[in-house]
Amino acid sequence: MKATERWYSDRVKRQVTLCRWGTIGQPVLLFPTAGGDAEEAERWQMMQALSPLIDGGKIKVYSCDSVAGRALVEREGSPKHRMWLQNEFHQYIRHEVVPAIRNDCKTPDIEIWSAGMSFGAFHAVAAICRFPDVFSKAVGISGTYDLRRFYEGAGPHDFDDYYFVSTPLEFVPTLAGRHLDVLRTRFVLMPSGEGRAEDITESFRMANVLGRMGVPNRVDSWGKEWPHDWATWRKMLPQVLTEWTGGKS
Question: 2-244 belongs to which CATH class?
Answer without folding.
Answer: alpha beta
